[in-house]
Amino acid sequence: MSLRRAYDLVGVDLKDFTVKIMTEIYGVDDKGGRVRSYGFLEDAELAEGFVEAQMNSKDFRTRECSVLTDGKNGFLLNVEPVHLKHIDTAEEAVLEKARAKLSPLEIKIARKYL
Q1: Which residues span the domain enclosing 105?
Q2: What is the tens place of the pLDDT at every residue in 57-81?
Q3: How confident is the model at residue 51 (pLDDT cuts 50, 70, 90)?
Q4: pLDDT over 90 (residue 90)
């Protein structure tokens, strides 16, 4: 299976995937800004050794990352947790906004027939 984007995971059984802590090797510009990623390694010492072995090692950095991987494909995970909105909470917010637009008579009729 060739996966190129996280969207390719939609509907895919993830039993062969696991979250691993990996070390990203990335390049930086002359101001220290991130330019591009060169890859991810499971062994942090090997990643550091790779950087030190480069002739222009000052242009490389490493950082620890969480990666969802099956060993061939990898997807960088967001470091911040996401807040999952429950449907009943979202539904209540939409209904509250709709109720605010109704007249008292419309609310009375809605309660009687809905």
Answers
A1: 83-114
A2: 889 999 999 999 999 888 998 777 7
A3: very high
A4: no
Chain CA centroid to CA 35, Å: 20
Task: Please name the residue that has the structure tokens 């990996």.
Answer: 22
**Token pair of 31 as six digits:** 């101001």
- Quick one: 101 and 73 in the same domain? no
CA distance 25 to 109: 64
Token output for 92: 């209540």
Percent of the chain topping pLDDT 70: 96
Q: Average pLDDT for residues 26-35, to the nearest whole number?
A: 92
17 with 62, same domain?
yes
The tokens for 104 are 């008292």
Same domain, 53 and 90: no
Same domain, 56 and 89: no
Q: Report DSSP state, residue 6.
A: G
Instruction: Give DSSP secondary structure letters for 23-60.
Output: EEEEEE-TTS-EEEEEEEES-HHHHHHHHHHSTTGGGE
Residues 26 and 43 in one domain: yes
Quote the pLDDT of residue 66.
93
